[in-house]
Write a structure and sequence with these properties.
The protein is of the alpha/beta class. 46% of the residues lie in helices and 11% in strands. Strand 8, helix 15 and strand 9 form a beta-alpha-beta unit. Bound molecules: 6-O-phosphono-beta-D-fructofuranose. 6-O-phosphono-beta-D-fructofuranose binds next to helix 7.
Length: 504
Amino acid sequence: MANAYTNRKLSARYPLDLDAWKKLSSHYRDVMRDKHLRGLFSRDNKRFERFNVASGDLLLDYSRTHVNATTRKLLTQLAKQAGVPAAIEAMFAGDRINKTEDRSVLHVALRAKIADTVALETPGVSEVWEVLTRIESFVDDVHGGKIKGSTGKRFTDIVNIGIGGSDLGPVMACRALRSYWLDGVRFHSVSNVDGTQLVDLAQELDAETTLFVICSKTFTTLETMTNANAARAWVTERLDELAVQYHFVAASTNQEAMDDFGIRSDFRFGFWDWVGGRYSLWSAVGLSLALVVGMDAFKAMLAGGRRMDLHFRQAAMEENMPVMLALLGIWYNNFFAAQSQAILPYDNRLDRFPAYLQQLQMESSGKSVRMDGKPARCDTGMIIWGEAGNNAQHSFMQLMHQGTRFVPIDFLLSDSSDLAAANCRAQAEALMSGTGDEDIEPYRVHDGNRPSNIIHYAELTPDVLGQLIALYEHRVFVEGVVWGIDSFDQWGVELGKKLAARQG
Ligand code: F6P
């Protein structure tokens, strides 16, 4: 089933020897390096209409970036020459594109409909809908009071125990969808190994009404197992040994370890080796989210992810939002030498989205060796950071406005607050235009010419959240294809885990 992407052999200098890469280098040097964004706008009052991409409920406005028609043409040529269209098809076909782990990469199958026929013959894919149905009936039974604590009381508090993708996804999404929380249910999370999160939570929780969701693909991760064992001790001290069977549910691929912990078989929800930790929110790792927001909202998030998948598969390169977002990232990273990128949501409910993207992008793209084992020939993943917008304005934005560093920004903007929108647009405008030619003291001078994207949506619904997450997942993939790296392994983190286990 392998296609042109799966079989590709990278040349020694890849991607620097691609014709489009070379043309982009000269285009940068001869044309764009000295262009001011203010000038690009003043020469073209249709810039906004010409430099945006729409998909579903999202609009990516990249008019405030150093892009003209030639840049866009060369960037999309780069995507084509790097084999992005074939790579997209290889992923959806279930090819083993995670080469170093010899695995398919099929988080897209978790949100597909059967009729989409996404890699149905890959082992595990046909079980996706069965697990989803089991999750649905578990969630409904908890909400309907059929599944209760060991003393017969209904669950009011859901505690997610996990780390990395088994924590950041549920935490980010639960916060983002706060207005969808069902009455009488609260969400909490425990991730760090020092134990203090659980100590603090224990002050406010009642063991009789608390359900712990242990999320761990491997069920061996030191932090998660330490916290799970501490929670287990807390429950058995307050209730009894039998209570473990009522108060612990798990999302994992490790049956044996779940046996050892005492998770009963109908309280286990599996997933597959083709779901990477940082791409796992769509799987049983989303169980605590589903318990807090309900199955309708959870399924709406899956539907949003699927909408972005369909767009990603079907849209031409220049109209393809994840592809364009990735290419703009490459443009600033590899040609303008930006070392970092900031993600600033002007929507407080997305305050953990930058942290979520830090793992997604930096664990995926933090590589210096290509898929074929040769050294990467260009810089790969940028440092990702950020904060909810207004907080950022009053902490680190000064550096972005007048500092010596060059930091491209993604603003995320909803229509829900006029004031927040006005602030966001004002920041983007100030960064782009600066102070102009006024005769003012040097310390007041703001040169402007600092680029940003605005990703706009009307309201942060579960569907929109699904689209946003899938947008960035695919962006990461496209960048990795162009650089020739494996975006789905994390050998550096694995080494840290191994050494901690030895010393622990
Ligand atoms: O941090 C590395 C990592 O492997 C992540 O990719 C993953 O999300 C996390 O550890 C947790 O792993 P697990 O779900 O197996 O506990």
